[in-house]
Amino acid sequence: MSELAPQELRVLVAVAETGGFSAAAGMLGISQSAVSHSVRGSEGKVGAVLFERGRSGASPTPAGERAVALGRRILRLYEVLGAEARAAGRAASGAAGGGLEGTLRIAAFRSAALHLLPPALERLAALHPGIRPEVRVVRELGAGTAGEVAAGRADLGIATLGAAGDVPPGLLTGVLAREAYALVHPAGHPDPRSLPLLDWDENCGSYTRAWWAAQDWIPAATVKAEDDAMVLTMVGRGLGMAIMPELSLREAGDAVEIAGLGPQGPVRRVGYVTTPESASTLSVRALIRELRAESA
Fold it and tell me: Which among 149, 135, 2, 140 has a CA at the least distance from the CA of 69?
């Protein structure tokens, strides 16, 4: 099989992201026929159909999704090659200004982006002011932040780590923190467990599901909110109780009280997810060090 050239990868990514050959041509500044010719050539080299063509546009086949994800990751290495080489050269020579530079793409779920990430980025900026973090908040549903990394849209994700199958194969992970769940209820309520349960879709992962099912005192959720911040606000308004992890409870105010669930209560692992190629880059390694320092 012939190797795909960088421009061919850029075309595949553009078609996937825009949903059509014409839109991809506009994004890349080339003709539609050039896009079509490039995709046909890539399919011939790969030996698989990469896009389903139709009146509504073009959508990746399973083979195309994999090719596009790997294409993004390969193109990302081209992007960081210069900055990584310059930083390594300066460090080896002992020259001044050996700090890292360039964009660092991070995906994180809401409470991690709000509480775990900022102190680490602050220290990273002090050491390497040339690094430009780009942080996107991604809901931990479906593929979640790990899916953003696997698809090549993020260099590192901060994710909730549950069962082994929760992370796409081939990615590297590391635990940053273990946080216990607690019962949160309106301050001063005499019988919190009698209150209706408030919840949100991201809350019950593989790390809590078995514990949750074994608790006969927990009712079915009567209200589903958009995220943990909304749940916390509603609890403070006296609308119910909730079971929430420690990161979410960092925003708790005087309107709520927090009670532990005992030694058998659920605990979730929060960690980083990255690709083997990103894990070898100096900027990702520097961020992981600062995240570990924050969690120590």
Answer: 149
Query: Residues in the chain, how many?
Result: 296
Beta 101-108 vs 221-225: how paired, if at all? unpaired
Give the architecture-level CATH label for domain 1-97: Orthogonal Bundle (1.10)
Torsion of CA 46, 51, 53, 55, to 10 degrees: -160
What is the mean pLDDT of the segment spanning 52-68?
A: 94
244 vs 266: CA distance, rounded Å = 10
The architecture in CATH of the region 98-176+270-295 reads 3-Layer(aba) Sandwich (3.40)
Question: Taking the domains of the chain in order of start, what are their residue ranges?
Answer: 1-97, 98-176+270-295, 178-266
- Reported as a single tens digit per residue, the pLDDT across 112-148 is 999 999 999 999 999 999 999 999 999 988 889 999 9
